[in-house]
Design goal:
There is one protein chain. This protein is an alpha/beta fold. The protein has four domains: about 5-205 and about 345-360, Rossmann fold (3-Layer(aba) Sandwich), CATH 3.40.50; about 215-325, 3-Layer(aba) Sandwich (Udp-n-acetylmuramoylalanyl-d-glutamate--2,6- Diaminopimelate Ligase, Chain: A, domain 1), CATH 3.40.1390; about 370-510, Rossmann fold; about 520-665, Isocitrate/Isopropylmalate dehydrogenase-like (Rossmann fold), CATH 3.40.50.10750. The chain is about 45% helix and about 20% strand. The chain has a seven-stranded parallel beta sheet, with helices on both faces. Strands 20-19-21-18-17-22 form a six-stranded mixed beta sheet, with helices on both faces. Strands 8-12-11-10-9 form a five-stranded mixed beta sheet, with helices on both faces. Helix 19 crosses helix 20 (about 465-475) and helix 21 packs parallel to helix 22. The chain is globular, with a radius of gyration of 29 Å.
Length: about 700
């Protein structure tokens, strides 16, 4: 029998999308297959899709088609009601839900969006649907433009409405509450419900409440003249440019939207210049009204500027446009990753996950899926925030990953490079990074530069390094970043998006060096396959390890596997299984296996063993029937770099597996290398595992 939760609200603009995203993230971290369902959607235009469904399917990559995620549109419901077919509405919803129940272990159901005069009717409809599906609910209410008394009254009415229909209520979340009233509202809600019902109170988050330029353009039907790469800019204020310039400029505020007739070149150019000036706040965009556009000569000037915010044009009057913009609702949509990650972070921060999991999400996950593993990584990283340095601070992918990491507030980050270059690159990409939360360090201007030079000189003078050479090397971001880690000014480093593996690792080998008792630095990849996560080692560092080195790689990989929540069952791979094969290569693997058994009898290990016998239970039990590893191996150790590197890439490309790594093992402090072909996700994941390594010491 599938489990499910129904998210419902008693009013418009409650912000329940935050709850949907947060719960979906938790559920995917605890169970294998999670479905998403909306009984009724408001989209009635066949050419458009429901924004909630698209966002959830896209961000979480659910194995569902869009049509599977809803039962009826609002128009279909109204049509059936006018024909007296109310019973048929429930029949269709139940049938569609039951089809999903057969496919998924858990289903997250999101109720309707409330609008207009239908609010009270829809509240009752959602209660009836939840009752007939037999699903407990989480109620969400909004404190926007309400007193505490009004908020609590609305939530109480919603609570009573569901309780009267004997629908189990798991929890109540008050959203968009004045930040000064969070504790008071929480106390009042706790007093209102029984001890089995969890309570969450979320303050008003400006970045989630304010519309983006993209939303404004779509709502107004405006034409985008320039700045398409910055349409996700948040609009916090607006300023109408209909007065003389000297009076207009004093009305500019941070992230404001300038609204002005299209023939006011003075206001347009001055707004753009003010946004670049250190003496004025940055603007989010410009809307040109009246169906007017600047002359070609003015547009030529604007398009040649180094930084230009989005400029929209609309064939409506200034006053009408200003009023319509003020009424635009903010949404979470698939392409706005920053808003999605802000929502996830907000949920984690203000909704007591412990209470929720103890009171309802009590099921035990079976096995470890890639999604569970990645969720677990985030949770581990959040336990103790670590400081990671990214030397390649102007690389596009690094900045995109940094934006995601800062929104989630998982790690403290330092980007190496020129502040102006990094800011310019951010503007080109349309990336918004809160620079109050990120350190930007230009190595040659760092107050630690001379100390780093002298430290490096003292560490390497026995290798004929003089002070001049030390100074030259410390201008290199890889050496500087590694020295930050060595000196304790950062907990770990991730590099390699631009630089080679040798360039990234060489400084670490020179002065961070290996842990006591470790003679070889090696690497592993966490291979996230469809149904499991396997550890592959060594696929990046050691070309042709000896038996002793191979044994050490296996021990390090087993320990890393255990540290990341994967039970280590180690397979020492070769071209033969058991005692059947002969030759120098298989003998090396056999010897390495014996060394591991002698040094670490606690490790479950089998070798030599072929790949199919290691991972396929039928093949494994046929070839090695008495092995506790065959067919169940979680850690696969390759005999050489040629085999390991090609195999991990073949598995990654042919199966679509996510390869997280390489993660380096054996260093005193964590330094990890990226592939120059890495994606933003690769960087994000590698920073997370580096932070976890730093926690482990």
């Amino acid at each position: 029998m599938s489990r499910a939760i129904y998210i419902a609200t008693g009013e418009a603009e409650s912000g329940k999308s935050i709850i949907t995203l947060g719960l979906m993230s938790i559920l995917l971290g605890r169970t294998r297959k999670v479905g998403y369902f909306r009984p009724i959607i408001e989209v009635n235009n066949p050419s458009k899709k429901d924004n909630h469904i698209e966002t959830v399917l896209t961000h979480f990559n659910l194995e569902m088609e869009y049509e599977d995620c809803y039962a009826l549109t609002g128009a279909e419901v109204i049509k059936k009601k006018t024909k007296g077919q109310e019973g048929e509405i429930l029949d269709i919803i139940i049938k569609k839900y039951k089809e999903l129940e057969d496919r998924f272990d858990f289903i997250l159901v999101e109720g309707t969006d409330f609008s207009g005069e239908a609010v009270f009717v829809e509240l009752d409809v959602n209660a009836v649907i939840a009752k007939n599906l037999g699903i407990p609910v989480i109620l969400v209410g909004s404190g926007k433009e309400k007193s505490n008394e009004e908020l609590l009254t609305n939530l109480h009415l919603a609570y009573d409405s569901f309780a009267e229909k004997e629908v189990k209520i798991l929890g109540i979340v008050a959203n968009k509450v004045d930040e000064n009233e969070v504790n008071s509202v929480s106390d009042d809600l706790e007093a209102m419900v029984d001890e089995k019902t969890f309570v969450g109170v979320i303050p008003m988050i400006k970045s989630l409440n304010n519309p983006t330029i993209k939303e404004i353009a779509e709502e107004l039907g405006a034409k985008v003249l320039i700045g398409e790469n910055q349409l996700d800019n948040q609009v916090e204020n607006s300023a109408v440019g209909a007065m003389q310039l000297r009076n207009f400029l004093i009305h500019l505020k941070q992230n404001c939207l300038v609204i002005t007739p299209g023939d006011r070149a003075d206001v347009i150019l001055s707004s753009l210049q003010a946004s670049l000036s250190d003496n004025y706040p940055k603007i989010a965009g410009i809307v040109l009204t009246g169906g007017l556009q600047p002359e070609d000569s003015v547009m030529k000037l604007i398009s040649g500027l180094r930084e230009v915010v989005p400029i929209l044009a609309i064939n409506r009057g200034t006053f009408e446009v200003a009023n319509r913009i003020g009424a635009i609702r903010s949404h979470i949509y698939p392409s706005n990753e920053q808003r999605i990650y802000t929502s996830l972070n907000t949920f984690d921060k203000y909704v007591n996950i412990g209470d929720l999991t103890r009171k309802y999400l009590t099921f035990k996950p079976k096995g470890l899926t890639p999604r569970m593993f990645q969720y677990d990584l985030l949770r581990k990283a959040q336990k103790a925030k670590k400081h990671i340095v990214l030397p390649e601070g102007t690389d596009d992918r690094i900045l995109l990953a940094a934006a995601r990491l800062t929104v989630l507030d998982i790690v403290e980050l330092t980007l190496l490079g020129s502040r102006s270059s990094i800011q310019e690159k951010m503007k080109e990409l349309g990336v918004s990074i809160n620079l109050d939360k990120v350190h930007i360090v230009n190595p040659e201007h760092s107050p630690h530069f001379e100390d780093y030079v002298n430290t490096f000189y003292e560490l390497r003078k026995h290798k004929n390094i003089n002070i001049s050479m030390a100074r030259d090397l410390m201008h290199d971001v890889s050496f500087f970043g590694t020295m930050m880690v060595y000196k304790g000014h950062a907990d770990g480093m991730v590099s390699g998006a631009v630089n080679t593996t040798q360039h990234t690792i060489r400084p670490a080998l020179q002065f961070i060096k290996t842990k006591p008792g470790v003679s070889v630095v090696s690497s592993i990849f966490f291979m996230c396959l469809d149904d499991r996560v396997s550890v592959f080692g060594d696929c990046a560092i050691n070309p042709n390890p000896t038996a002793e080195q191979l044994a050490e790689i296996a021990i390090s990989s087993a320990d890393s596997s255990a540290a990341f929540g994967i039970e280590p069952k180690v397979a020492m791979l070769s071209y033969s299984s058991g005692s059947s094969g002969q030759g120098a290569d298989v003998d090396k693997v056999r010897m390495a296996t014996e060394i591991v058994k002698e040094k670490r009898p606690d490790i479950k290990i089998e070798g030599p063993i072929q790949y199919d016998a290691a991972v396929d239970i039928k093949v494994g039990k046929k070839k090695l029937p008495d092995s506790e590893v065959a067919g169940e191996a979680s850690v696969l150790i390759f005999p050489d770099l040629n085999t390991g590197n090609n195999t991990y890439k073949a598995v990654q490309r042919e199966t679509g597996a996510i390869a997280i790594g390489p993660m380096l093992q054996g260093l005193n402090k964590p330094v990890n290398d990226l592939s120059r072909g890495c994606t933003v996700d690769d960087i994000f994941n590698t920073v997370i595992i580096t932070a976890i390594q730093a926690q482990q010491g």
